[in-house]
Design brief:
This protein is of the alpha/beta class and 258 residues long. It folds into two domains: 177 residues, Rossmann fold (3-Layer(aba) Sandwich), CATH 3.40.50.300; 66 residues, no CATH class. The protein is 38% helix and 25% strand. It contains seven helices and nine strands. The strands form two sheets. The protein has a six-stranded mixed β-sheet, sandwiched between helices. A hairpin with a 6-residue loop joins strand 8 and strand 9. Helix 2 runs parallel beside helix 4 and helix 3 crosses helix 4. The longest helix has 24 residues.
């Protein structure tokens, strides 16, 4: 599934009645099976853009279009949030089944699909556990399995590993790349971490400070599959530096305005 973000702008009215321009004329196309990271300084509208793609927010101007047929039972998008957003009273199995329940999938079929994605995300054997019995990394795996279980054409991820410690975050990045290699979902991944974006993505879309505009699209010329060995690759380091050069002044301006 290809995603076309066509000149999207978003304006809010804050609680004091003031106009806040969050996004201004963002245009971006994400090809089928492509992994694209979106990053920019704090408050640049990254999450707003993702919510517009998900259909959770309406753009003030422009639109989002999905190109390509949906397979039977496939949904256009599913979201993995920064917070784990699990139901504490539900087991791993029941949490993963939630979206399928909402879609009216028959009980035996949703159990089968949930178990398949539980296995895919390395949670086999933990089906009967509750969120409080899991580590942070495992809870986020449940969130990923729940999103994948509804079989979206496009997987949207809003800083999904930012709440994890550095070691767990690195392991989860590797795990997600492994899942992506097997499923080949189109992924739009929001992050504020340049190293994470370059490590994971085929291409990095860089937004300006608010109102967010597309500054550049940077291709990541690193071979796949990727391991943490690429973190010392000259191409990796050059790409990180190129993006930091683009974004540094924007981040400084955003900090002064906050």
């Amino acid at each position: 599934m290809r995603v076309v973000i066509d000149s999207v702008s978003k304006t809010y009215i804050d609680r004091n009645g003031h106009r806040v321009d969050a996004l201004a004329g963002v245009g971006l196309a994400v090809d089928a099976e492509e992994f694209v990271a979106v990053l920019g300084p704090s408050g640049c509208g990254k999450s707003t853009l993702l919510n517009i793609v998900a259909g959770l927010l309406a753009p003030t101007e422009g639109g989002v279009y999905f190109e390509g047929p949906l397979a039977r039972g496939e949904t256009p998008t599913a979201m993995v949030f920064q917070e784990f957003a699990l139901f504490p009273w539900r087991t791993v199995q029941a949490n993963v089944e939630f979206g399928l329940e909402e879609a009216g999938v028959e009980r035996l079929e949703r159990g089968r699909r949930a178990r398949a994605y539980i296995e895919l995300t390395g949670l086999g054997g933990f089906e009967a556990k509750y969120p409080h019995q899991l580590s942070g990394g495992m809870r986020q795996r449940v969130g990923i399995a729940r999103a994948l279980a509804v079989e979206p054409a496009v997987l949207l991820m809003d800083e999904p590993f930012s709440a994890l410690d550095a070691q767990t975050r690195q392991l989860m990045q590797e795990e997600l790349l492994s899942i992506w290699e097997r499923t080949r979902k189109t992924i739009i991944y929001v992050t504020h971490n340049i190293h994470e974006a370059v490590y994971m993505a085929d291409r990095v879309a860089v937004l300006s400070r608010r109102p967010g505009r597309l500054l550049a699209e940077i291709p990541v010329e690193l071979k796949r599959p990727r391991t943490d060995a690429v973190l010392g690759d000259p191409v990796f380091l050059q790409t990180v530096e190129r993006i930091w050069t683009l974004i540094k002044g924007q981040a400084q301006e955003a900090l002064r305005e906050s």
